[in-house]
Amino acid sequence: MAEREELTWELFGTAGRELAEAIADSGFEPDLILSVARGGLFVAGALGYALDVKNLHVMNVEFYTGVDERLDLPVMLPPVPNAVDLTGARVLIADDVADTGATLKLVRDFCADHVAEVRCAVVYEKPRSEVRCEYVWRHTDKWINFPWSSLPPVVRRSGQVLDA
C-alpha cells in the first residue's frame, strides 16, 4: 500500500487554528464561509469559530466514490445555495483538500459572478490541483487519511454514492 498522509483529530485542531491565523494575518475578513460538504464541513466549522464568522453555508458536491476513484466531473447536489445570499459578500470557501482542484473550481466559479471577493482555504493542497488556494496548511502528493473518513461508515445506505 502506498504511503499516506495521516491527519488525526488533534492535528486537525492545529491545522484549523493555523489556517485561521494565516487568514487573519492576511487581512481578509470573510462575511461568510462556504463549506464544501462533506469534508469541508469540519474545516468551515473550525474556521468559523476561530475567525468569529457565524454565517456558514454548505454546498454539496459529489466527486469521490472511493480511494482515488472519482466521477469524470464534480456534480453539485441540491440544495444549491441561492446566489442572492452570496451577492456582494467576501466569501471564504473551505474544504479539506484541493486534489485535482475540480471541485473547488466548480464552487469558486459558481460564486465568482455574485460575490465581492472569493478565496479558498484547505487543509491540504496537491501539486496537480488546478486551483491554487490562498490558504493552505500543508502540501502533499499522498492520499490523505482524514479522521472523519478513515473508518468505514457505521451503516451503509444504498444510493448514497453516485455511480462513476
Task: Describe this protein's structure.
By secondary structure, the protein is of the alpha/beta class. The chain has a single domain, classed as Rossmann fold. The protein is 28% helix and 34% strand. It is built from 4 helices and 8 strands, in the order E-H-E-H-E-E-H-E-H-E-E-E. The strands form 2 sheets. The protein has a 6-stranded mixed sheet, with helices on both faces. A two-stranded parallel ribbon has the order 1-8. Strand 3 and strand 4 (69-77) form a beta hairpin. The longest helix has 18 residues, at 9-26. The radius of gyration is 15 Å and the shape is globular. The model has no long low-confidence stretch (mean pLDDT 87). InterPro entries: PRTase-like (IPR029057), PRTase_dom (IPR000836). This is Phosphoribosyltransferase.
What is the CATH level 1 assignment?
Answer: Alpha Beta
Gross geometry: globular
Low-confidence segments, ≥5 residues, pLDDT <50?
A: none
CATH fold type: Rossmann fold
Helix % is 25-40%
Give the second-level CATH assignment, the architecture: 3-Layer(aba) Sandwich
| Secondary structure tally, helices | 4
Strand content: 25-35%
The total tally of domains equals: 1
Structural class: alpha/beta
Mean pLDDT score: 87
Radius of gyration: 15 Å
GO molecular function: glycosyltransferase activity
Protein name: Phosphoribosyltransferase
Organism: Amycolatopsis rhizosphaerae
Keywords: Glycosyltransferase, Transferase
